[in-house]
């Protein structure tokens, strides 16, 4: 079992210490655990710009130090990977690249959380959007993720259709041309797409992405990895067996993990 996407209390909206997530992973028999809390708002003036979104900039070194210490302490029982989930703001990533280059990260998750000026999970953003416009909006989100992949700053593309999180109707809305463009961009950038099981913590339920996108990803030979996106320790590897079953039926045979930026595959089952 692997899980490359977990958070903890430093971000201000998750519970549990890093050690709690390691302990939960050990209890479940997880072999590879990625610690990937949200990056600080590196582009902001203030040290702690958004206390309920991400840790202070000044806290990042101790996050990495604690993760590295746990990696060493548990080296004989579990492989811990040290990572972070960064927001993608098109064209304004220099403070992130500069800050992250100072740390021995195994990989970086790139996620589009801010889209067309608002948080993707802000349910109020949908109050003024007509159902007829949803396919176009979804297509634009996929293109934003494609741009995120093309930046080549990231190893893993986070929750690629999370726009549906608090507007479930979006899940079934087709946007095939933009979806295919995004999947090709992910593959061509050398990044992988995560299968993220945290949809159940939002209104949409289920996983990111939808199964039609998983099938298209297999068609385009996009490598994949597993992500619980746990914000509580108990969610580590949540729904792992169900995901393996569905992916195996589609035809996937391997996961991808990253060690110091280098991709390695491991068997799905
Ligand atoms: Zn979070
Ligand atoms: Zn995220």
UniProtKB/TrEMBL annotation:
Please verify whether the record's keywords include Chaperone: no
SUPFAM superfamilies reported for this sequence: PHP domain-like
Entry keywords, A to Z: Amino-acid biosynthesis, Histidine biosynthesis, Hydrolase
* Highest taxon of source: Bacteria
> Which residue range or ranges hold the PHP domain?
3-198
* GO BP, one annotated term: L-histidine biosynthetic process
**Entry GO MF terms:** histidinol-phosphatase activity
Catalytic activity reads: L-histidinol phosphate + H2O = L-histidinol + phosphate
* Residues of the signal peptide: none
- What is its pathway? Amino-acid biosynthesis; L-histidine biosynthesis; L-histidine from 5-phospho-alpha-D-ribose 1-diphosphate: step 8/9
Q: Which InterPro entries match?
A: Histidinol_P_phosphatase_HisJ (IPR010140), PHP_dom (IPR004013), Pol/histidinol_Pase-like (IPR016195)
Family according to the record: Belongs to the PHP hydrolase family. HisK subfamily.
Query: What NCBIfam families does UniProt report for this protein, alphabetically?
Result: hisJ_fam, PRK07328.1
Q: What is this protein called?
A: Histidinol-phosphatase
Recorded source organism is: Streptomyces albireticuli
